[in-house]
């Protein structure tokens, strides 16, 4: 039985959303550029392979149990690998790791396979790569994946945490890297 079958009172609201018109994507992207966000590298390793990509769409969900979410574009090469491995690590970058952000965003000439040659990596509980210089790294097991629009929202149970050296973090705002 679907959620809407269990909540018939909400059927009208969902029909309204389905017929509603959204703003233009360009206007939305412009609006989003005004939101400052921490820069992370989402990594994974396991039977489906090793991969990592730069992401800002990361959010805390709950502390009972500790859960986070990451939004991964289904067109990104790393997304099916995260799903296949069922694990990921959220590595929150420090201010001086801008080059790692660019590398894992595919902005440099470094191939996908060679991305991990930049930085010092280890593992914690799940086997996903943990960046030693990260402000903080959250080692997660995927507990749910929800496809919404162009992205897969991956919910992860936090199994271990690494806190790197204290210092400023890397933030993306107004299409520029900034230090906070
Ligand atoms: C600052 C910044 C933030 C990004 N945030 C996300 C994100 O939240 N989710 C996502 O899927 N891609 C995001 N990207 C894009 C990916 O990093 C980029 O598409 C990358 O090349 C994907 O690599 P892959 O195809 O090897 O997985 C972001 C890129 C940058 C530069």
Describe the structure in your own words.
With 180 residues, this protein is α+β, with helices and mostly antiparallel strands. The chain has helices at 3-6, 11-19, 25-32, 78-85, 98-104; strands at 37-38, 40-44, 51-55, 58-63, 66-73, 87-92, 121-122, 130-131, 136-148, 151-163, 170-173, 176-179. It has a 7-stranded antiparallel beta sheet with strand order 3-2-6-9-10-5-4, sandwiched between helices. A 3-stranded antiparallel beta sheet has the order 1-11-12, with no helix packed on it. A two-stranded antiparallel ribbon has the order 7-8. A hairpin with a 7-residue loop joins strand 7 (121-122) and strand 8. The longest helix has 9 residues, at 11-19. The protein binds flavin mononucleotide.
Short description:
This protein is of the alpha+beta class.
| Main beta-sheet strand count, sense and barrel state | 7 strands, antiparallel
Number of domains: 1
The CATH homologous superfamily name equals Electron Transport, Fmn-binding Protein, Chain A
Q: What is the name of the CATH class?
A: Mainly Beta
Helical content (DSSP H or I, runs of 4+): 10-25%
């Amino acid at each position: 039985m679907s959620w809407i079958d269990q909540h018939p009172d909400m059927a009208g609201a969902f029909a309204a959303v389905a017929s509603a018109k959204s703003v233009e994507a360009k206007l939305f992207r412009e609006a989003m550029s005004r939101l400052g966000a921490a820069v992370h590298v989402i990594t994974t390793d396991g039977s489906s392979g090793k991969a990592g990509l730069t992401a800002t769409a990361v959010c805390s969900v709950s502390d009972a149990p500790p859960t986070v979410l990451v939004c991964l574009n289904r067109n990104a090469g790393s997304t099916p690998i995260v799903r296949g491995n069922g694990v990921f690590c959220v590595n929150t970058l420090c201010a001086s790791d801008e080059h790692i952000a660019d590398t894992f965003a595919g902005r440099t000439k470094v191939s996908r396979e060679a991305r991990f040659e930049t930085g010092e990596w280890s593992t914690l509980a799940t086997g996903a790569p943990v960046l030693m210089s990260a402000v903080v790294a959250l080692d997660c097991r995927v507990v749910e994946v929800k496809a919404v629009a162009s992205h897969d929202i991956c919910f992860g149970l936090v199994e271990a945490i690494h806190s790197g050296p204290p210092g400023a973090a890397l933030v993306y705002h107004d299409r520029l890297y900034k230090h906070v």
